[in-house]
Amino acid sequence: xxxxxxxxxxxxxxxxxxxxxxxxxxxxxxxxxxxxxxxxxxxxxxxxxxxxxxxxxxxxxxxxxxxxxxxxxxxxxxxxxxxxxxxxxxxxxxxxxxxxxxxxxxxxxxxxxxxxxxxxxxxxxxxxxxxxxxxxxxxxxxxxxxxxxxxxxxxxxxxxxxxxxxxxxxxxxxxxxxxxxxxxxxxxxxxxxxxxxxxxxxxxxxxxxxxxxxxxxxxxxxxxxxxxxxxxxxxxxxxxx
Length: 241
Known about the structure:
This protein is an alpha+beta fold.
């Protein structure tokens, strides 16, 4: 396996984000590219990441599964600068990582055995789909964090609403002018602790797609030509006071 990535910033930032949700992952490398699917230890959130073959300037591989400690990989990828490029090469039970800029720097990362079945992103049905500017979503989630530890995604009369209520409250409202809304009336509540982590993914992409339904998991997707990143988050189902 020999992979060369000429702009590793996207991979570095994604691995940093994923390391906040999961500790160890299986990285699959095959004819289509590189991918990760993992569940967080609390079984509340799931993440899927794809870096297609076209993102690499050199891509030589058979089917490989790399067991990786994400925190260790994150620390190495942080050593990449804006003008660096990255070479990944599997050597036995080690992953050789070469960072090239003005000089060549070499790291080795021990591959680990990860037990358990391979994860797959589930196929879910949703009643609502909203596409909006990532910068607006980030601001709305940060507003909610100020007042509560969870927020509701609401579809009401063709509008998309993000609201949080504790002793205090916050509310953002989007009409069809600010977002592409294809949705039925519904409401579902989600943990802001997780949504805040997902917002680091929103910073990598101009648009964010949200899919949800009444008291139903949320699917959040970020797509560019270079990558696909998606999250599934379980709803927080509570009885209203």
